[in-house]
Structure formats: structure tokens, C-alpha cells
Specification:
single chain, about 230 residues, Spore Coat Polysaccharide Biosynthesis Protein SpsA, Chain A, 8-stranded mixed sheet, 10 helices, about 45% helix, globular
């Protein structure tokens, strides 16, 4: 099964070379890498070009960027990958095997960083995902391309697009919850303090669960000063 790895990016010059270097073994096996830039001003698209199959420019916003990438993808399956997340070894075989039985899925997650609480955050994310059947973008959501297209892609939301997509996919079938872990950077938590960020995200998710529109929540999220790349 050929994979299309879709990476939304915004001002990621500091990390994009290492991220793409980690994906070159997959590219050598025939899987494609698509970087979707949301208007970077730091040269991210230029740095990325040698390590991807195509660079696309799209309006800023993860949902819009990932939909733009999916629209040009050629693979049978789509993998949505944040630029500060690393896939486990043999990720292509893991995804292909999982999609023989399910329409979509995600990986467990490990968060790197000094604060010990990040290990707890990762463990809770994994447990919550199994209990709810929902996934976050940090968990490298993967899905059959035809299923993604039939669902209409990510809802055009400025925040919580991963949860909204998961809800739609869950109606079609349960996810494949892979225990192999992706490794994601703890920079978002460390930049503003882990406890402050944890509380913010819990509050945002709770408010979204009780019906507050994502458009009303994004201002609070951006006021938290997320690091570059939180498109």
C-alpha cells in the first residue's frame, strides 16, 4: 500500500531538515511526501523542497493545509504528520497492515522533553484515545484515501479539526489503535510551561465537547503563544 505523508508547516525552518531526513527511507521505498506550507516567511518551503515530492502552498490553518495536501496525494492511504513528530521504524508496514482490517487509525504517542509530567500526558492521551475512539493530530492519524474523500476531509475549523475528523471517521468504523509509538516534541508544553499548557488544552477540549464552536476557542489558543508551526 503506497502512503502519502502530508505535513502541514508554518515557519519550521529550524526543524524541517531533520524531520524530512527521518522520512527519506520511506520515500526511497516509493511512498510520497507532501509538504503543505501555510505562508512561511523563514524559507521553510525552500529547505523542504529537496526532501519532498511536492511543496504546496495553501491558506494558513492545519485543516485547510492538510485538505490541500490530500487533494493532490497519489497514495492509497494518507498519513497526517506534524513536522515535530517522528514515525516509528517500519511505519509503512504498520499502517498497511492496520488498514487491511480498519478504515483508519493512529499510533500511540511518546512526548520528549525534560518535565516528567510529559510522560504522564502521553500515557493519558493514549488511554483516552482507546476509550473514546478519537485521535489527536500528534498521533499521526492515517486513513484510506477513498474513505477520507468520501467523508469530505477535515472540517474547515481553525482548531479541533483532528477531533472533528475522528468523530466522522468513528461513525464509519473504529480506529486501529497501534501500540507502536510516534515520538513528538514537547516544545509546545515547555514553551509556556507544561502545567499551564495542559490546563489550557483540557479547558479547550472540555468547552469544545460541551458545544462551544472552535472559532470561539481559537483566540484563547493563540493567546497562549504556541511555538512556530502551530498553524
Amino acid at each position: 500500500m503506497r502512503l502519502s505523508l502530508i505535513l502541514p508547516a508554518l515557519n519550521e525552518a529550524a526543524v524541517i531538515p531533520a524531520t524530512l531526513a527521518s522520512l527519506q527511507p520511506l520515500r526511497a521505498l516509493g511512498h510520497e511526501i507532501i509538504l503543505v506550507d501555510g505562508g512561511s516567511t523563514d524559507g521553510t518551503p525552500i529547505l523542504a523542497a529537496p526532501g519532498v515530492d511536492r511543496v504546496i502552498t495553501a491558506p494558513r490553518g492545519r485543516a485547510r493545509q492538510m485538505n490541500a495536501g490530500a487533494a493532490q496525494a497519489q497514495g492509497e492511504a494518507l498519513v497526517f504528520l506534524h513536522v515535530d513528530t517522528r514515525l516509528p521504524e517500519g511505519a509503512d508496514a504498520l499502517v498497511s497492515d492496520a488498514l487491511q482490517a480498519r478504515l483508519w487509525g493512529r499510533f500511540d504517542i511518546r512526548i520528549t522533553g525534560r518535565p516528567w509530567v510529559l510522560r504522564v500526558v502521553a500515557a493519558l492521551m493514549n488511554v483516552r484515545s482507546r476509550l473514546t475512539g478519537l485521535a489527536t493530530g500528534d498521533q499521526a492519524i492515517f486513513v484510506r484515501r477513498a474513505t477520507f474523500a468520501a467523508l469530505g476531509g477535515f472540517p474547515d475549523l481553525p482548531l479541533m479539526e483532528d477531533i472533528a475528523l475522528s468523530k466522522g471517521l468513528k461513525r464509519l468504523g473504529p480506529p486501529a489503535c497501534l501500540r507502536q509509538r510516534v515520538t513528538t516534541s514537547g516544545r509546545r508544553w515547555e514553551s509556556q510551561g507544561p502545567w499551564r499548557t495542559i490546563l489550557l488544552m483540557w479547558r479547550l477540549r472540555f468547552d469544545y465537547w460541551r458545544g462551544v464552536p472552535a472559532e470561539s476557542l481559537v483566540g484563547r489558543y493563540r493567546l497562549s503563544a504556541p511555538p512556530p508551526g502551530d498553524v
